[in-house]
Design goal:
The protein is an alpha+beta fold and 544 residues long. Helix content is 60%, strand content 7%. The longest helix is centred in the C-terminal third of the chain and has 55 residues. The two termini are 61 Å apart. Pathway: Cofactor biosynthesis; ubiquinone biosynthesis [regulation].
Length: 544
């Protein structure tokens, strides 16, 4: 590690110790030495003993910067994995991160637009509406139309902080791969690379604008999801201008209940929206923490979700979607043999894995879980237990699915927070079965013909010419093959002659040596000369 990386590592450790986060370490005999060392570091005592542990954790993550704040946002959605006193504090990271000066934000915006804000906007508010880890948001109205908008601006000088932490994460991931052989199957370097890509993508607000436009188009006629309009002519790489929305933040359960929201339908719609994005559109919002999700106040009996902050999106190719759907359906149907086979077929585990042993291990993990009512089963727990079991079978992490797994945990966490009895399995299974039937059934054939029909219609007039060209190319190919075969046979004949000449020459040279040893010098010289002659003939045959 270079000096700057060591300095950052020390800063991370120091922040954790100053906030007393060593209390999060479990009681384990192997941790006795680290805990004893902690007590000896008297210059890094817990400076906030009066604050609850959850608040200390939030403050530490906030002080460490955007990389760690994002991690805290993800943890805040998993209320089934973390106690309320921690989850409640981490939820504040979603949109209550310490803001920076509004005048500095205005200067950033004017620099991006190339002129004073008053040229395009009225009623700009220097007090931020919300502040997050990467950017903060201010309100204004469009001067031309009077529509209310929000202006999102990137925090100044944030890129060096992110790069420093990512560099350190690369170092630590590489060290893990070298020191711990078992860590190689987790592919930590590739996971860090994927995380780096998502963070850096968030710094380009024009990418977020494009993502928002795409997501809005995908759900243009939907009453389940609304995506605000983006004003691309006023947006820049570090500035995003979009429609201002008024809704209820999804984490405000009391307000949702007071508005008469159908919480069961709202949570089920969240699952439907997620699977629609993944399997229908291959384009899904991958940052669905409560700070980015609102619910419209209108029509509470048929509530509509509102999605903000499309900086992180994910996509899957056809093979990934097929693999994922088959795996989930196999889980729903408790077909553990199919799960094991799919893991091998998709390359998650090595080809030489014993399917019978793998199936037995999966059954051992999943059967006790499925004995509970489906509504009480946490998909997050199933995944974690399955991955821990598959570790024995050298299961590798698939970086292209990490974002999807994180988003699925977000969705489940949100759904359970809104409606604790949410049956994610019952909601998702019909959707997946319908999707699979359209992929492999008669409808799939019809859809395929419809999709390719314009291409076939375009190429149909060219068919005779293409057929003639194919026949001509086939004839030319046959002629080349015949010529190559003739050349090969001629080469083999010359090689046979060469071997014959070399053999005769070697025999004559040996005879020459025998005659010379018996003092028959005349015949010895003749035999040697003839042997050399035959060698020359063999060499000449090789060159043909």
């Amino acid at each position: 590690m270079v000096l700057s990386e060591l300095k950052r590592l020390y800063q991370i450790t120091a922040v954790q110790l100053r906030y007393g986060l060593d209390e999060l370490l479990p009681e384990d005999p192997r941790l006795k030495l680290p805990k004893a060392m902690r007590k000896s570091l008297f210059w890094l005592r817990n400076e906030h003993p009066e604050k609850p542990l959850g608040e200390r954790l939030r403050l530490a993550l906030q002080e460490l910067g955007p990389v760690w704040i994002k991690f805290g946002q993800m943890m805040s959605t998993r209320r089934d994995l973390f106690p309320p006193h921690i989850a409640d504090q981490l939820a504040l990271l979603q949109d209550q991160v310490a803001s920076f000066d509004g005048r500095l934000a205005k200067d950033q915006m004017e620099k991006a637009l190339g002129g004073p804000l008053e040229t395009w906007f009225n009623d700009f508010d220097e007090v931020p509406l919300a502040s997050a880890s990467i950017a903060q948001v201010h309100t204004a109205t469009l001067k031309e139309t009077g529509k209310e908008v929000v202006l999102k601006v990137i925090r100044p000088d944030i890129l060096p902080v992110i790069k420093a932490d990512i560099t350190l994460m690369y170092r630590m991931a590489g060290l893990l791969e070298k020191v711990l052989p078992d860590a190689r199957r987790l592919r930590p370097v590739e996971v860090v690379r994927e995380y780096e890509k998502t963070l850096l993508d968030e710094l380009n607000l024009m990418r977020e604008a494009a993502n928002g436009i795409q997501l809005r188009r995908n759900f243009e006629d939907s009453d389940m999801l609304y995506v605000p309009e983006v004003y691309t002519d006023l947006s820049r790489e570090n500035l995003l201008v979009m429609e201002r929305i008024y809704g209820i933040q999804v984490s405000d359960i009391d307000a949702l209940v007071a508005n008469g929201t159908d919480m069961k339908l709202l949570s089920e719609n969240a699952v439907t929206i997620f699977f629609t994005q993944v399997f229908r559109d291959s384009f899904f919002h991958a940052d669905m923490h409560p700070g980015n999700i609102f619910v419209a106040r209108e029509n509470p009996e048929n509530p509509q979700w509102i999605a903000l902050d499309c900086g992180i999106v994910g996509s899957l190719n056809r093979e990934d979607k097929r693999y994922l759907a088959e795996n989930l359906l196999a889980f729903f149907n408790r077909d553990y043999r199919k799960v094991a086979e799919l893991h091998v077929d998709s390359g998650w585990v090595p080809e030489d894995t014993n399917i019978d042993e793998f199936e037995c291990a999966i059954r051992t993990v999943c059967e006790p879980i499925f004995e509970k009512p489906l509504a009480e089963i946490s998909f997050g727990h199933v995944l974690l237990n399955l991955f821990n079991t598959a570790r024995r079978f050298n299961m590798e992490v698939q970086p292209q699915l990490v974002l999807l797994q994180k988003t699925l945990l977000y969705v489940e966490g949100l759904g359970r927070q809104l409606y604790p009895q949410l049956d994610l399995w019952d909601t998702a299974k019909p959707f997946l079965e319908d999707w699979m039937s359209r992929q492999v059934g008669p409808q799939a054939v019809i859809d395929g013909v419809k999709t390719r029909a314009p291409f076939w219609a375009e190429k149909l007039p060219e068919l005779p010419e293409l057929l003639y060209d194919s026949l001509r190319q086939g004839n030319a190919l046959n002629q080349r093959i015949d010529k190559l075969y003739d050349n090969f046979m001629e080469s083999r004949r010359y090689q046979g002659q060469a071997r014959f000449y070399f053999g005769i020459g070697a025999t004559l040279v040996v005879c020459s040596a025998i005659l010379f040893s018996n003092h028959i010098e005349t015949y010895s010289a003749i035999s040697a000369a003839m042997g050399v002659t035959f060698w020359l003939l063999g060499w000449r045959a090789c060159r043909k």
